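Notes from hallway chat w/ T.B., transcribed later so I don't forget. T.B. wanted the structure written out for a chain they're using in a teaching module, and asked if we could keep both sequence and structure tokens in one place. Agreed to drop them here.
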Amino acid sequence: MAPAVLATSGAVGAWTLVAIVVLLALAALLAAAEAALARITRPRAEDLAAEGRRHGDVLADVVRRPEQTITTLVFLRIACQLVQATLVGALANDVLGPVGTGVAIALDVAVVFVLAETAPKTWAVLDPERVALAVARPVRAVAAVAPLRWAARALIGLTNVVLPGKGLKHGPFVSSDDELLAVAEIGVEEGVIEEEERALIESIITFGDTIVREVMVPRPDMVTVSAQFRVADVMEVFLLNGYSRMPVCGDGLDDIMGLAYAKDLMGAERDGKQGVPVRELVRPARFVPETKRVPDMLREMQRDKFHMAIVVDEYGGTAGLVTLEDLIEELVGEITDEFDIDDPIVEPVPGGGIRVHARTPLDEVNELLGARLPDGDWDTVGGLVYDRIGHVPLEGESVDVPGWRLTAQRIQGRRIGRVSIVPLGEGDPPAPARGRGDAG
């Protein structure tokens, strides 16, 4: 019986060794495929297909559906490595005992790192197109296996449960926007492009996700005139503010009758109509919802040849106004002329931190500070202060968020003018949340 048992044990060990080698080779192939596909953009894959490259059409199909291919590849690669490591441990324990098992596991880690990770991924990085074309067909075949795809999606769903609000919608692959930003960062580091060009690239990418509410002049900042005003009176308002067009109101800001144009009023004055009510000279206004995407707004302004629109909220009330200049500034930055008052958007605060206008978008502040200030229903740093304080702040009133202290400054009525944002030290006491009128 002993020779039969030994023969059976030897056969099992041999088959286990074969399985280990096969799994190691498969893990290496999957690692190379993952690295190569991550470096092939959709336009490049379509170019390879158009050039008639072998398997180019398959590669274009694979790159077109990263949520199916890359996620399945990552899942299968990790599964191969884990099963291979388990088999190595079991075989080593049977043949070499506990001490030999530790040595075998250490050697297996080194082999996996070199042969199944570093070497194939380096090969893929050095020649991504050739590797991507070579693995395109087997990758598509693997992604077509429904149980693997379902298992990968289920685990991605579990990830989203473990990390609520920060999970991955489809899987661990880099979006084309993130890839383009990464390439721009590398270009800056290597001196190929300037920092200003990188900032413009980032602005163009984020431009598509911006809505009108984020760039409009808010309702409290709107300069309007009553429909009852005479032409001469409205011209005074134009001269004081330096505008070329202005909304005309009827019974309040929610009753916008149209737009008054400075050139129309100047013509009326030359014709001796200084005393005519401005409502007789208004032109129709355009109304847009505050959730309208900025690229759509820009194309509409170009197509229909208008420079200003009234922004309305979900209830039909006036939320603000948006101009062509506001949209362009979202791309190229602040545009000022010789008549604008130079009020710095960002001021450094002694000891660290910054002071910004309360209307500054929260994502800009996060980028400036390298911070992650809480986000929510608000778009600006002033909105964050209002939410956390819970009432109209007094000047100098502060609120703490993780790692930072925000202080409301330059309060005008119910509006916050500026907000200082300074880092919190470990021993700093909580914000006193008091205004300048409080004692002590």
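Follow-up for T.B.: The longest strand covers residues 256-261. Might be a good example for the class.
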